[in-house]
Design brief:
By secondary structure, this protein is α/β, with parallel strands linked by helices. It has helices at about 20-35, 65-75, 100-105, 140-150, 165-170, 200-220, 235-240, 240-250, 255-270, 300-310, 345-350, 360, 380-385, 390, and strands spanning about 5-10, 10-15, 40-45, 50-55, 80-85, 155-160, 225, 275-280, 290-295, 310-315, 365-370. The protein has 14 helices and 11 strands. Helix 2 (about 65-75) runs parallel beside helix 4. Bound molecules: acetamide (ACM) and zinc ion.
Length: about 400
Protein backbone atom coordinates (compact mmCIF):
# COMPACT_ATOMS: atom_id res chain seq x y z
CA UNK A 1 0.00 0.00 0.00
CA UNK A 2 1.02 3.59 -0.82
CA UNK A 3 4.09 2.45 -2.78
CA UNK A 4 5.14 3.73 -6.17
CA UNK A 5 7.86 3.70 -8.80
CA UNK A 6 8.81 6.84 -10.65
CA UNK A 7 10.83 6.48 -13.89
CA UNK A 8 12.22 9.75 -15.17
CA UNK A 9 13.78 9.56 -18.65
CA UNK A 10 14.50 12.10 -21.40
CA UNK A 11 11.30 11.05 -23.18
CA UNK A 12 9.00 11.48 -20.20
CA UNK A 13 8.00 10.43 -16.73
CA UNK A 14 6.28 7.15 -15.93
CA UNK A 15 4.50 6.35 -12.67
CA UNK A 16 3.54 2.89 -11.49
CA UNK A 17 1.79 2.58 -8.16
CA UNK A 18 0.13 0.08 -5.88
CA UNK A 19 -2.86 2.36 -5.29
CA UNK A 20 -4.08 5.94 -5.70
CA UNK A 21 -2.16 7.10 -2.64
CA UNK A 22 1.04 5.74 -4.22
CA UNK A 23 0.40 7.70 -7.41
CA UNK A 24 -0.26 10.81 -5.29
CA UNK A 25 3.05 10.33 -3.47
CA UNK A 26 4.88 9.80 -6.77
CA UNK A 27 3.71 13.28 -7.79
CA UNK A 28 4.88 14.68 -4.45
CA UNK A 29 8.33 13.18 -5.04
CA UNK A 30 8.39 14.62 -8.55
CA UNK A 31 7.53 18.01 -7.08
CA UNK A 32 10.40 17.65 -4.59
CA UNK A 33 12.80 16.82 -7.45
CA UNK A 34 12.02 20.04 -9.31
CA UNK A 35 9.07 21.73 -10.94
CA UNK A 36 10.70 22.56 -14.32
CA UNK A 37 13.42 19.95 -14.66
CA UNK A 38 14.00 16.72 -12.78
CA UNK A 39 17.06 14.47 -12.89
CA UNK A 40 16.70 11.23 -14.85
CA UNK A 41 16.52 8.08 -12.79
CA UNK A 42 14.21 5.77 -10.94
CA UNK A 43 12.71 6.15 -7.49
CA UNK A 44 11.15 3.09 -5.90
CA UNK A 45 9.52 4.00 -2.65
CA UNK A 46 7.06 2.69 -0.12
CA UNK A 47 6.41 3.60 3.50
CA UNK A 48 8.12 1.83 6.36
CA UNK A 49 5.10 2.69 8.54
CA UNK A 50 1.44 2.94 7.79
CA UNK A 51 0.75 5.56 10.53
CA UNK A 52 2.67 8.75 9.76
CA UNK A 53 0.97 11.23 12.01
CA UNK A 54 0.82 14.83 13.03
CA UNK A 55 -1.18 15.96 16.07
CA UNK A 56 -2.57 19.44 16.55
CA UNK A 57 -3.90 20.58 19.93
CA UNK A 58 -6.72 23.04 19.35
CA UNK A 59 -7.97 22.88 22.94
CA UNK A 60 -5.46 25.33 24.39
CA UNK A 61 -5.24 27.59 21.36
CA UNK A 62 -7.62 27.46 18.43
CA UNK A 63 -6.21 27.96 14.93
CA UNK A 64 -9.22 27.55 12.65
CA UNK A 65 -10.04 25.99 9.32
CA UNK A 66 -7.65 27.85 7.05
CA UNK A 67 -4.61 27.07 9.21
CA UNK A 68 -5.68 23.44 9.43
CA UNK A 69 -6.03 23.20 5.65
CA UNK A 70 -2.56 24.68 5.22
CA UNK A 71 -1.19 22.09 7.62
CA UNK A 72 -2.94 19.29 5.72
CA UNK A 73 -1.26 20.57 2.52
CA UNK A 74 2.12 20.50 4.23
CA UNK A 75 1.45 17.05 5.66
CA UNK A 76 0.61 15.73 2.19
CA UNK A 77 3.77 17.29 0.72
CA UNK A 78 5.77 15.28 3.24
CA UNK A 79 3.74 12.09 2.89
CA UNK A 80 2.21 12.23 6.35
CA UNK A 81 -1.13 10.44 6.35
CA UNK A 82 -2.75 10.70 9.79
CA UNK A 83 -4.07 13.98 11.16
CA UNK A 84 -4.67 13.49 14.87
CA UNK A 85 -7.02 16.28 15.84
CA UNK A 86 -6.91 17.00 19.57
CA UNK A 87 -10.31 18.66 19.96
CA UNK A 88 -11.10 18.54 23.67
CA UNK A 89 -9.11 19.76 26.64
CA UNK A 90 -9.34 21.28 30.11
CA UNK A 91 -9.07 24.67 28.43
CA UNK A 92 -11.50 24.26 25.55
CA UNK A 93 -14.08 22.03 23.84
CA UNK A 94 -13.78 22.62 20.08
CA UNK A 95 -16.34 20.33 18.46
CA UNK A 96 -19.98 21.37 18.34
CA UNK A 97 -22.25 18.41 19.04
CA UNK A 98 -25.69 19.85 18.25
CA UNK A 99 -27.41 17.22 20.43
CA UNK A 100 -25.56 18.68 23.45
CA UNK A 101 -25.38 22.44 22.84
CA UNK A 102 -23.97 23.23 26.30
CA UNK A 103 -20.64 21.68 25.31
CA UNK A 104 -19.64 24.62 23.14
CA UNK A 105 -21.83 27.15 24.94
CA UNK A 106 -19.78 26.72 28.12
CA UNK A 107 -16.82 24.70 26.95
CA UNK A 108 -15.49 26.75 24.04
CA UNK A 109 -14.95 30.11 25.75
CA UNK A 110 -12.62 31.12 28.56
CA UNK A 111 -13.37 34.34 30.45
CA UNK A 112 -9.85 35.60 29.80
CA UNK A 113 -7.13 34.99 27.23
CA UNK A 114 -3.61 34.33 28.43
CA UNK A 115 -1.42 37.37 27.80
CA UNK A 116 0.81 36.79 24.78
CA UNK A 117 4.09 35.37 26.01
CA UNK A 118 2.97 34.13 29.43
CA UNK A 119 3.31 30.40 30.09
CA UNK A 120 -0.16 30.26 31.55
CA UNK A 121 0.71 27.89 34.38
CA UNK A 122 -0.95 28.52 37.72
CA UNK A 123 1.98 30.55 39.03
CA UNK A 124 2.58 32.35 35.75
CA UNK A 125 -0.84 33.27 34.43
CA UNK A 126 -1.53 36.78 33.24
CA UNK A 127 -4.82 37.46 31.50
CA UNK A 128 -5.27 40.20 28.91
CA UNK A 129 -8.84 41.07 29.89
CA UNK A 130 -10.32 39.66 26.67
CA UNK A 131 -12.42 36.51 26.55
CA UNK A 132 -10.89 33.60 24.61
CA UNK A 133 -13.59 32.27 22.30
CA UNK A 134 -16.16 31.08 21.66
CA UNK A 135 -13.99 29.01 19.29
CA UNK A 136 -15.19 25.71 17.89
CA UNK A 137 -15.84 23.73 14.69
CA UNK A 138 -19.38 23.09 13.49
CA UNK A 139 -20.28 19.75 11.88
CA UNK A 140 -20.12 21.50 8.48
CA UNK A 141 -16.62 22.83 9.23
CA UNK A 142 -15.55 19.31 10.16
CA UNK A 143 -17.04 17.80 7.00
CA UNK A 144 -15.14 20.42 4.98
CA UNK A 145 -11.85 19.52 6.69
CA UNK A 146 -12.53 15.79 6.28
CA UNK A 147 -13.12 16.23 2.54
CA UNK A 148 -9.95 18.31 2.23
CA UNK A 149 -7.96 15.65 4.08
CA UNK A 150 -9.41 12.81 2.01
CA UNK A 151 -8.32 14.46 -1.24
CA UNK A 152 -4.80 14.36 0.21
CA UNK A 153 -4.97 10.72 1.38
CA UNK A 154 -5.00 11.80 5.02
CA UNK A 155 -7.06 9.99 7.66
CA UNK A 156 -8.40 12.21 10.42
CA UNK A 157 -8.35 10.74 13.93
CA UNK A 158 -10.39 12.84 16.36
CA UNK A 159 -9.33 12.84 19.99
CA UNK A 160 -12.11 13.14 22.56
CA UNK A 161 -10.45 12.71 25.94
CA UNK A 162 -11.76 10.53 28.72
CA UNK A 163 -11.50 10.45 31.74
CA UNK A 164 -9.00 13.31 32.31
CA UNK A 165 -8.30 16.62 30.53
CA UNK A 166 -12.04 17.14 30.59
CA UNK A 167 -12.61 20.41 32.48
CA UNK A 168 -14.21 22.09 29.43
CA UNK A 169 -16.80 19.30 29.29
CA UNK A 170 -17.34 19.60 33.04
CA UNK A 171 -17.92 23.36 32.59
CA UNK A 172 -20.89 22.39 30.42
CA UNK A 173 -21.90 19.38 32.54
CA UNK A 174 -20.63 19.78 36.12
CA UNK A 175 -23.00 16.97 37.14
CA UNK A 176 -20.50 14.50 35.60
CA UNK A 177 -17.65 15.43 37.98
CA UNK A 178 -16.97 13.58 41.23
CA UNK A 179 -17.12 16.82 43.22
CA UNK A 180 -19.97 19.32 43.26
CA UNK A 181 -19.68 23.02 42.61
CA UNK A 182 -17.28 23.20 39.66
CA UNK A 183 -17.19 26.54 37.81
CA UNK A 184 -19.16 26.84 34.55
CA UNK A 185 -16.01 27.85 32.64
CA UNK A 186 -13.10 25.84 31.22
CA UNK A 187 -9.82 25.81 33.07
CA UNK A 188 -7.81 29.05 32.73
CA UNK A 189 -4.44 27.55 33.62
CA UNK A 190 -2.12 25.05 31.97
CA UNK A 191 -1.20 21.91 33.87
CA UNK A 192 -2.71 18.61 34.98
CA UNK A 193 -6.13 18.99 36.64
CA UNK A 194 -7.57 16.95 39.51
CA UNK A 195 -11.12 17.21 38.18
CA UNK A 196 -11.91 14.26 35.90
CA UNK A 197 -15.00 12.39 34.74
CA UNK A 198 -16.79 10.54 37.55
CA UNK A 199 -16.25 6.92 36.54
CA UNK A 200 -18.83 5.77 39.07
CA UNK A 201 -21.66 7.78 37.53
CA UNK A 202 -23.67 5.76 34.99
CA UNK A 203 -25.13 8.96 33.52
CA UNK A 204 -21.62 10.30 32.88
CA UNK A 205 -20.62 7.08 31.12
CA UNK A 206 -23.84 7.10 29.06
CA UNK A 207 -23.26 10.75 28.15
CA UNK A 208 -19.77 9.98 26.84
CA UNK A 209 -21.20 7.08 24.81
CA UNK A 210 -23.61 9.51 23.18
CA UNK A 211 -20.81 11.98 22.50
CA UNK A 212 -18.85 9.18 20.80
CA UNK A 213 -22.01 8.23 18.83
CA UNK A 214 -22.06 11.73 17.37
CA UNK A 215 -18.31 11.77 16.78
CA UNK A 216 -18.55 8.45 14.90
CA UNK A 217 -21.44 9.78 12.82
CA UNK A 218 -19.24 12.67 11.71
CA UNK A 219 -15.81 11.03 11.37
CA UNK A 220 -15.69 8.04 9.01
CA UNK A 221 -12.14 6.91 9.87
CA UNK A 222 -11.25 3.61 11.51
CA UNK A 223 -9.71 5.12 14.66
CA UNK A 224 -10.97 7.19 17.60
CA UNK A 225 -8.41 8.55 20.09
CA UNK A 226 -9.81 8.43 23.62
CA UNK A 227 -6.94 10.23 25.39
CA UNK A 228 -6.45 8.67 28.82
CA UNK A 229 -3.27 10.57 29.75
CA UNK A 230 -2.63 12.44 32.98
CA UNK A 231 -5.72 11.35 34.89
CA UNK A 232 -5.03 11.95 38.60
CA UNK A 233 -6.84 9.51 40.83
CA UNK A 234 -7.39 11.95 43.73
CA UNK A 235 -11.12 12.54 43.15
CA UNK A 236 -11.83 8.88 42.43
CA UNK A 237 -10.21 7.96 45.77
CA UNK A 238 -12.58 10.35 47.58
CA UNK A 239 -15.74 9.74 45.55
CA UNK A 240 -18.39 7.34 46.96
CA UNK A 241 -19.69 6.54 43.46
CA UNK A 242 -16.24 5.72 42.08
CA UNK A 243 -15.42 3.62 45.15
CA UNK A 244 -18.76 1.80 44.79
CA UNK A 245 -17.89 0.98 41.16
CA UNK A 246 -14.49 -0.38 42.18
CA UNK A 247 -16.17 -2.59 44.80
CA UNK A 248 -18.99 -3.75 42.55
CA UNK A 249 -16.58 -4.75 39.77
CA UNK A 250 -14.05 -6.29 42.17
CA UNK A 251 -11.28 -3.99 40.94
CA UNK A 252 -7.98 -3.66 42.78
CA UNK A 253 -7.60 0.10 42.66
CA UNK A 254 -8.18 3.35 40.74
CA UNK A 255 -5.74 2.34 37.96
CA UNK A 256 -7.95 -0.66 37.30
CA UNK A 257 -10.94 1.69 37.30
CA UNK A 258 -9.31 3.64 34.48
CA UNK A 259 -8.64 0.36 32.67
CA UNK A 260 -12.36 -0.41 33.06
CA UNK A 261 -13.17 2.99 31.47
CA UNK A 262 -10.73 2.27 28.62
CA UNK A 263 -12.16 -1.19 28.07
CA UNK A 264 -15.74 0.10 28.25
CA UNK A 265 -15.24 2.67 25.49
CA UNK A 266 -13.03 0.35 23.45
CA UNK A 267 -15.82 -2.24 23.47
CA UNK A 268 -18.47 0.41 22.84
CA UNK A 269 -16.60 1.81 19.85
CA UNK A 270 -15.67 -1.66 18.56
CA UNK A 271 -19.40 -2.40 18.22
CA UNK A 272 -19.51 0.63 15.93
CA UNK A 273 -16.60 -0.75 13.93
CA UNK A 274 -13.92 1.55 15.34
CA UNK A 275 -10.57 0.96 17.00
CA UNK A 276 -9.53 3.04 19.98
CA UNK A 277 -6.14 4.50 20.69
CA UNK A 278 -5.09 5.97 24.04
CA UNK A 279 -1.98 7.60 25.56
CA UNK A 280 0.45 5.26 27.29
CA UNK A 281 -0.75 5.92 30.86
CA UNK A 282 -3.61 3.54 30.08
CA UNK A 283 -1.11 0.67 30.42
CA UNK A 284 -1.12 1.06 34.20
CA UNK A 285 -4.40 -0.81 34.65
CA UNK A 286 -3.76 -3.48 31.97
CA UNK A 287 -6.52 -2.63 29.48
CA UNK A 288 -7.36 -5.06 26.67
CA UNK A 289 -4.78 -5.40 23.91
CA UNK A 290 -7.39 -4.30 21.32
CA UNK A 291 -6.61 -0.72 22.36
CA UNK A 292 -3.74 0.87 20.46
CA UNK A 293 -1.23 2.51 22.79
CA UNK A 294 0.12 5.93 21.91
CA UNK A 295 3.56 6.18 23.48
CA UNK A 296 4.59 9.72 24.52
CA UNK A 297 6.53 9.41 27.78
CA UNK A 298 9.71 7.35 27.92
CA UNK A 299 10.27 4.84 25.07
CA UNK A 300 10.06 2.04 27.65
CA UNK A 301 6.27 2.43 27.70
CA UNK A 302 6.04 1.91 23.96
CA UNK A 303 8.24 -1.17 24.28
CA UNK A 304 6.13 -2.46 27.19
CA UNK A 305 2.93 -1.94 25.21
CA UNK A 306 4.27 -3.75 22.13
CA UNK A 307 5.60 -6.61 24.26
CA UNK A 308 2.19 -6.96 25.91
CA UNK A 309 0.66 -7.27 22.43
CA UNK A 310 -0.80 -3.80 21.85
CA UNK A 311 -0.34 -2.11 18.52
CA UNK A 312 1.64 1.07 19.15
CA UNK A 313 2.01 4.56 17.72
CA UNK A 314 5.23 6.14 18.91
CA UNK A 315 5.74 9.78 19.83
CA UNK A 316 8.29 11.09 22.32
CA UNK A 317 8.69 14.18 24.45
CA UNK A 318 12.29 14.77 23.40
CA UNK A 319 11.99 13.37 19.87
CA UNK A 320 8.64 14.30 18.29
CA UNK A 321 7.10 16.94 20.61
CA UNK A 322 7.71 20.05 18.53
CA UNK A 323 6.08 22.21 21.20
CA UNK A 324 9.38 21.71 23.08
CA UNK A 325 12.21 24.21 22.27
CA UNK A 326 14.64 23.07 19.57
CA UNK A 327 17.47 24.95 21.20
CA UNK A 328 18.27 27.56 18.53
CA UNK A 329 19.76 30.95 19.43
CA UNK A 330 17.45 33.97 19.65
CA UNK A 331 14.27 31.90 19.65
CA UNK A 332 11.62 34.60 20.15
CA UNK A 333 8.79 32.27 21.19
CA UNK A 334 7.43 31.09 24.53
CA UNK A 335 7.41 27.49 25.72
CA UNK A 336 5.54 25.65 28.45
CA UNK A 337 8.76 23.79 29.34
CA UNK A 338 11.54 26.21 28.34
CA UNK A 339 14.36 24.02 29.68
CA UNK A 340 13.42 20.91 27.73
CA UNK A 341 15.01 20.26 24.34
CA UNK A 342 14.01 18.52 21.14
CA UNK A 343 16.65 19.39 18.57
CA UNK A 344 16.41 19.11 14.80
CA UNK A 345 19.04 16.33 14.96
CA UNK A 346 16.91 14.44 17.51
CA UNK A 347 13.83 14.77 15.30
CA UNK A 348 15.84 13.46 12.34
CA UNK A 349 17.37 10.53 14.20
CA UNK A 350 14.05 9.39 15.68
CA UNK A 351 13.39 5.68 15.25
CA UNK A 352 10.02 4.53 16.57
CA UNK A 353 11.29 0.95 16.86
CA UNK A 354 14.45 1.77 18.83
CA UNK A 355 15.16 -0.81 21.53
CA UNK A 356 12.45 -3.22 20.39
CA UNK A 357 12.69 -6.93 19.68
CA UNK A 358 11.62 -8.09 16.22
CA UNK A 359 8.38 -9.41 17.72
CA UNK A 360 7.62 -6.04 19.34
CA UNK A 361 8.48 -4.13 16.14
CA UNK A 362 5.64 -5.91 14.35
CA UNK A 363 3.22 -4.03 16.63
CA UNK A 364 4.53 -0.58 15.65
CA UNK A 365 1.93 1.02 13.39
CA UNK A 366 4.08 4.10 13.04
CA UNK A 367 5.02 7.43 14.50
CA UNK A 368 3.53 10.80 15.22
CA UNK A 369 4.81 14.31 15.82
CA UNK A 370 2.79 16.50 18.15
CA UNK A 371 2.07 20.20 18.49
CA UNK A 372 0.70 21.02 21.93
CA UNK A 373 -0.55 24.57 21.96
CA UNK A 374 -0.47 25.89 25.53
CA UNK A 375 2.15 28.39 24.33
CA UNK A 376 1.37 28.56 20.62
CA UNK A 377 -0.58 31.73 19.94
CA UNK A 378 -0.90 31.83 16.16
CA UNK A 379 0.13 30.36 12.83
CA UNK A 380 3.56 32.07 12.77
CA UNK A 381 4.42 30.76 16.21
CA UNK A 382 3.17 27.31 15.13
CA UNK A 383 5.15 27.30 11.87
CA UNK A 384 8.38 28.31 13.61
CA UNK A 385 8.04 25.43 16.04
CA UNK A 386 6.86 22.82 13.55
CA UNK A 387 9.37 23.38 10.75
CA UNK A 388 12.01 22.26 10.01
CA UNK A 389 11.66 19.53 12.63
CA UNK A 390 8.58 18.07 10.93
CA UNK A 391 10.55 17.81 7.63
CA UNK A 392 13.17 15.84 9.53
CA UNK A 393 10.55 13.67 11.19
C1 LIG B 1 0.51 14.25 26.72
O1 LIG B 1 1.48 14.89 26.31
N1 LIG B 1 -0.05 14.56 27.87
C2 LIG B 1 -0.05 13.15 25.97
ZN1 LIG C 1 -16.58 9.79 41.02
Amino acid sequence: PEGYRLDIAPGGVKVASADDAGAFYAMKTLKQLGTKAAPCGTVTDSPAFRWRGFMLDEGRHFFGKETVKGLLDQMADHKLNVFHWHLTEDQGWRIDIPRFPELVKYGSVRPESPMHGCRGTKGDFRGNGQPYGPYFYTPDDIREILAYAKERFITVVPEIEVPGHIRALLAAHPEFACKEGLPRVPCMFNGVQDEVLCAGNDDAIRFMEQVYDEVCALFPGAYIHIGGDECPKKRWKECPKCQARIKALGLKDEDELQAWVTRHFTDYLAKKGRRTIGWDEILAGNPGTETIVHNWRKPKYGIEAAEKGHDVVVSGLGMTYFSVPQGVADDPFTYLSPKMRCSLAKAYSFDPCAGMTDAAKKHVLGAECCMWSECVWNEYDLSFKLWPRAFAF
